[in-house]
Every structure is written in structure tokens, then in C-alpha cells.
Amino acid sequence: MEYLNIFFDEVYKILFLLVPVLVSVAMIVWLDRRIWAFVQKRQGPNVVGPFGLLQSLADALKYIFKEMIIPSSSNKVIFILAPIVTMTLALIAWAVIPFSATQVLADINVGILYLFAVSSLGVYGIIMGGWASNSKYPFLGAIRSAAQMVSYEVSIGVIIINVLLCVGSLNLNDIVIAQQNVWFVIPLFPMFVIFFISALAETNRPPFDLPEAEAELVAGYQTEYSGMMYAMFWLGEYANILLMCAMGAILFLGGWLSPIELYPFTLIPGAIWLILKILLLFFLFALVKAIVPRYRYDQLMRLGWKVFLPLSLIWVVLTASFLFYFNLLPVN
Amino acid sequence: MIAHAIFFYTFSIIAVVSAIMVTASKNTVHSVFFLILDFISISCLFIMIGAEFLGMIMLIVYVGAVAVLFLFVVMMLNVAQQKNQWFAAKDSSKHIPIGLVISTLIFIEIMIVIGGWKYKPDLFDINNSLSQTSVSNTHSLGQILYTDYIHVFQISGMILLVAMVGAIVLTFRQRSGVKRQSYIKQISRERAEGVEVLEVQSNKGVKIDD
């Protein structure tokens, strides 16, 4: 009986986190299309519901009622497993995101490593989908995407080391609390820029959306998918984007801390601040999609390995020596 | 305690079964997927004994990077359809004695280590072991790795670096006649060197170099 109570308590907490995340994923798709349209002086989706807010819901309904086509020569188990893996990985990462000092599902010691591990597993959904489709375009898209994601993960890892040097803990709440005096975006500004660009590449967003470059590869790894399975890929992708924004907000923008520790600002709960910061980062994501042309593949690889990796490594050395010289290291 | 046992046996059964499936499955790509499942369940076991840092590093390094490269190679080499199974193939049966010898050796080694640990605990330095300290195991690992074993740590890093450089040297070949793109050259191109205005006389034409 006691176990059951604990179990239902946890299930309740998980639902309380997952349902808002899923709803906000749907909203964020609408926001993305709207921002994209406004930059190009279009209206975007504005018909379904007020301001077109229900557009994503209508799209989801359409996908649910569409037929799921499984190609006869595909590897069926892996073909069906791929969108499930993408979706699951995008959602389980939210377990460690702190919305305030106490509002966190799993306050584990190695929170940032968990986030990094889950985001690096995201590549499997794409590889599995691309390979199991047993078709040329999806396979090429999957190979491209795997190489791209593995490359940019490296620089994200090194950037995380930069932040960790200033914090001295792998716990996400500790990382947020360490930014009480100054957000890391100020002392580590170059790293924030590199993190943002790497996050674009990691989530296959434009200008790095080569895995699904429609001019060359039809729709990349999603070519053979239809109906609900396509929708799951699509939801997983946007959940990943939101997750990357949340990671950026926690690592560099002070997570749930309010910008100014003064009376009217401290009344607003931390969750609201975190959501505002995630939305700010997402706004930048959407703007980049609208204003930047797509990279060529060799340029993408060059940027990852020859520019970002050395730059972030040098910055690790700089940060470490600065902290050591001025005796600011958090752990002795 | 019961919940702990249930979780332990679930993960270890998954680990052992998927390890067997790595060698037994017909499709090479499936083998790699089973290998990934194996890595994941082993990292779950690491987390269960409180070595959360090791578990996460296992996920990041092996599942996130190494297995992706495995998959890459297996998919690219087009060895996906391997016809023979290891226990049915005639060719592979001559490898079985060697495999048996190696696995017996590894088994004996593990028996010696675990037996010694069980019956003569004073052989091992208990003070350094992870479970005895109150600080988080990331800190204690760092304290051991970067103080007592710094030389071993550095040497292993150097070995990896040498291996990487060696692999690049072995596969690198300079091809002639390849046009390389230099960003600096492209950006710093001036009008003067790009465009030339010539006075062309009629019926004479212009001779342009190269």
C-alpha cells in the first residue's frame, strides 16, 4: 500500500510535468511558424482559433487520422521503434530540469551529465529511422545527421566543462544558484554564442538542417514516415529544441533566478522566469531560421571541428587559469 | 531491499541476454543495437551501486559516441546481411577453441579478484573505495584520479592521442589536383584582381592567359 502511494504520487508529478511540456511543444510549433512568417512579411497560420493558436492541434488531429504506411521492405521493428525512441528521449530529459529550488522531479547529483547523455542519445532515433526505411534518401539523411550531431556534441560537452569549472557541481540547482551574483552569460559570453550555434546544429535546425535538406534529400530520415509516426518525430524534434533552450537558460541565463533580486521581481515564481528565458532563446532559434541561409555540409563540419572545438578548448584553459590565479575555484 | 533486487535482476538479465544476442543475431546492425542495449543496462547497474558519474559517462562515451561510430561503420560497409550464425557456421568453428581459452582466462581472473576481495578484504585499500566516502562520487573520483594516479591518467590520455594521430597519418593521402577553398582568400578578393577591363579591337580579339 505504501509503495502504491509513492508510485501514484510520482505518476501524478510526472503527468504534471509532461502534459504542460507536450502542450507547450504544440504551442511552440505555432510560435515558430508565426515568427518565421512575420520576418518574411507573411501572416502565417492565423485561421484556426484566435490568432491561429489551435493550428497545431488541427495538424495533430490530421496526423492521427492519416494512415500509417510501413514500407514492405523496411525493417519493421526498428522502423516503428525509431519515432518512439526520439519522442521518449526528448521527454525523459525534462525530469531533471529545475523550475525552482524545490520544484524538480529528480534532483540528482549528476543532472547536467544526464541532460548531456540524453541529448547525445537523440541521434539514435534518426539513425534507426533512416536505416530501417531501407531507402536511399532517408539513409543519406541519417548518416549526415549522425555525423553532424556527434561533432557538435563534442563542443557542447567542452562548453559545459567551462560552466562546471565556475560552479564546482554537476547538480542543475547548484548551477542555477551559483549564478546568483552574475549570470554566466556575462563572463562566458563567447561560450554562450558557441553553445547557441551548437544547439542549432544539435537539434538539426536551420541553418544546419542538412539531414532533412528538402532540396537534396526530399525529407531526409523522415521521407518514409507518415501519419502518427511522422508526427512523433516532429513532436520529438520540437521537444528537443525546447530542451536545448532550457539547457541554455539554466547554464547561462540563471535558470529560475529573477533578473533583479528586488521586491516586485522576487514575487514572480521561478518557473515563470525559466519559461520566459526559454521563450527568449526559442525566439532567437526562430529568428535564425528565418534570416540565415543553409550551410554546405563541408562548411558545417569545418565549423564544428576546426573552429568551435579549438575555441572552446582554449576557453576552458583560460577559465581554469583565471579561476586558479584569482583563487576563485569553487572546490578546493 | 526487494525493489532493489528486482531492479538488479531485471537489468542484469537484460545485460546478459543482449550480450548473447550481440553474437547470436543474424543481422550485424541488430548486433550493434543489442550492444547499445547492453551498454545502457550496464550503466543502469552502475547507477544502482551509487556510481552515478561512471554510469553517465558510460552512456555519454559508449552509447553516445562509440556505438554511433560502430553503427556508422557497419551500415557503410554493407555487411548487414550476414548469413551464418556463430553456432551453426562451419568456418567459425575453428575460432571456438581460442575463444574458449580466452574466456576461461578472463573467468579465472575475475574469480581471483572477487575471491580475494571477498575473503581477504585487507588486501585492498578500503579507504580509497567509493562507497566509504561521504562526498559525492564525482568529487572522490576526481580526488583520486588527479592526485594519486595523475601520471597513469596522463599517460592513458597520451596513448589515446597517439592512436588518433596514428589513425589520421595512416589514412591521410594528399591528392593532387584538388581545388581547396580558402575563406580568407575569397573574402579578401578585391575588384581589381577580379575584373579587368580591356579595349577589344575589332577583328583582333583578346588573348587571355590560362
Topology:
The complex is a heterodimer of chains A (332) and B (210).
Chain A: H1 2-39, H2 55-65, H3 76-92, H4 111-121, H5 123-132, H6 136-167, H7 172-177, H8 189-202, H9 214-217, H10 227-252, H11 263-267, H12 270-291, H13 297-325
Helix pairs in contact in A: 1-10, 1-12, 2-10, 3-5, 3-10, 5-6, 6-8, 6-13, 8-10, 10-12
Chain B: H1 2-24, H2 28-48, H3 52-77, H4 96-119, H5 137-148, H6 150-171, H7 183-187, H8 191-194
Task: Give a short summary of the structure.
The complex is a heterodimer of chains A (332) and B (210). In chain A, 68% of the residues lie in helices and 0% in strands. Chain A is an all-alpha fold and 332 residues long.
In N-to-C order, the SSE pattern of chain A is: HHHHHHHHHHHHH
Biggest interface reads: A-B, 25 and 22 residues
Helical segment count of chain B: 8
Radius of gyration of chain B: 29 Å
Describe the structure.
The complex is a heterodimer of chains A (332) and B (210). Chain A is mostly helical and 332 residues long. The model of chain A has no long low-confidence stretch (mean pLDDT 86). Chain A contains 13 helices and no strands. The mean pLDDT of chain B is 81. The N and C termini of chain B lie far apart (82 Å). Chain B has helices at residues 2-24, 28-48, 52-77, 96-119, 137-148, 150-171, 183-187, 191-194.
